[in-house]
Amino acid sequence: MENSPRYDIVYWLTHPTEDDCELTIRTSNGRIFSCEIDPSRFQRSPKVTEQYFKCLNTLRSDEEDSDDDFYVEDACDWLVSSFQPLLTKLATAPPQPEVAERPTLSQYLFAPYSKCVLEATDDTLEPHQVDTENCPWRCDRVRMVDGFFTGLNQWTRSYHPDEVEISCDYPEDLLIRPPTQVVVKGPDGSEVTCFFKPVKLSFGPEHARREVLIHEKIAKAEIPPFPETSIGQIYGVVHDGTFVFGILLKWIKQQDQYQRG
């Protein structure tokens, strides 16, 4: 389909002993898909099963298959292609999200979400959509301690995800790749380019909270900005009044880093 959106795997999850696999796929028109593959759903499908385990073991090891130069990229291509007809159908179904030249961070964080599973019968792949009512998608976010937002504007600026625009040199990847370069309005209305550092819950919400509070301490310490110091300077906090989604750091151009070095 000529106008089909682009899509790519942005995250995969495997287990050293379990045989299932989960892929997170994002599309260029702002949709997100959680795709689960469990070989127990393959019926009389030896070829599909063999290819799946080849892909699974490659993702587990993050190395090429020494037997036939089978790489992680090859594994991802096969896994995505297994869902391709369904992804194309769902990604182009109405209502279509409106994607501006510079979409907002909200469009990335709160993307329309679908959950899919892969089955196979007689070596014929059968991807299909499943209900998401009991497993809604939630972006990484952290609830802060009481009183955090009350004094926030005393040491930095506040931005709602709707007020943060994503910017990069590859517009076709704006809503696929995790956003890093973003643009916000400064106090005088001018555009300010920042680095968006999202909160990460890999080590739990308490670790994420501590990281936000560390940036608060750095800001209040009034450490000299780059290039006098190499510590990232906070420009603002992205939140909705309940959850913090990330930190905005002042953008440092690569050539400035090289000149300093």
Record keyword descriptors for this entry:
261 residues; 2 domains; 12 strands; elongated; disordered C terminus
Question: Helices and strands in order, then pairings?
Answer:
Blueprint (H helix, E strand, L loop, with lengths): L6 E7 L7 E7 L4 E12 L2 H16 L10 H20 L13 H5 L3 E9 L2 E7 L11 E2 L13 E3 L5 E2 L14 E5 L5 E8 L6 H16 L13 E6 L3 E8 L3 H7 L1
Parallel strand pairs: 3-4, 7-11
Antiparallel strand pairs: 1-2, 2-3, 4-5, 6-12, 8-9, 9-10, 10-12, 11-12
Descriptive overview:
It is a single chain. With 261 residues, the chain is of the alpha+beta class. It folds into two domains: 7-130, no CATH class; 142-260, Phosphorylase Kinase, domain 1, CATH 3.30.200.20. Helix content is 25%, strand content 29%. It contains five helices and twelve strands. Strands 6, 7, 8, 9, 10, 11 and 12 form a seven-stranded mixed sheet that branches. α1 crosses α2 (72-91). The radius of gyration is 21 Å and the shape is elongated. Mean pLDDT is 88; it is low at 257-261.
Largest β-sheet summary: 7 strands, mixed
Give the number of DSSP strands: 12
Low-confidence spans: 257-261
- Tell me what portion of residues adopts beta-strand conformation: 25-35%
Counting structural domains, the number is: 2
N-to-C series of helices and strands: EEEHHHEEEEEEEHEEH
Query: In terms of structural class, how would the helical and strand content be classed?
Result: alpha+beta
For the residues shown, what is the average pLDDT? 88
Report how far apart the termini are. 49 Å
Morphology call: elongated
Percent range of helical residues: 10-25%
Radius of gyration: 21 Å
Counting H and I runs of at least 4 residues, what is the number of helices? 5
